[in-house]
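Quick start: what a row looks like.
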Amino acid sequence: MRLSRLASATVAVAFVLALPYEARAHARVHPTETRSGDLFGAACRIRVDGSHVTAYCHNPYPATDHVSLHVECVRWWDLDSDGSPVAAGPAQTVELTGRCWKEVRSAWVSHRRAA
């Protein structure tokens, strides 16, 4: 009986350790693009599901934010991608997608103020 519990625990730990690594999500906003006290920048949520990346960006501010999804892949032969800027207007939510052929190393969203 004790051996079967140990085997079950070992399988459970191996399963948890074998779960796929999700890429770190972080936003990169350049400090020169924002003034202190100025309300700007969409809030973005990034989800990595296998080799697919989806970001939802909601802009609660009156200024339009041009957001772009950037995806860095794990494999050296897998091309990283920089998405085209998408305008997130005031009170608007936009969806950005990207992918790698294999694993995703990291994904982030860049922000640029509309001219």
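That is the whole record. Residues 56 and 95 are 5 Å apart (CA to CA). Strands lie at 24-28, 43-49, 52-59, 65-73, 81-82, 86-88, 92-99, 104-113.
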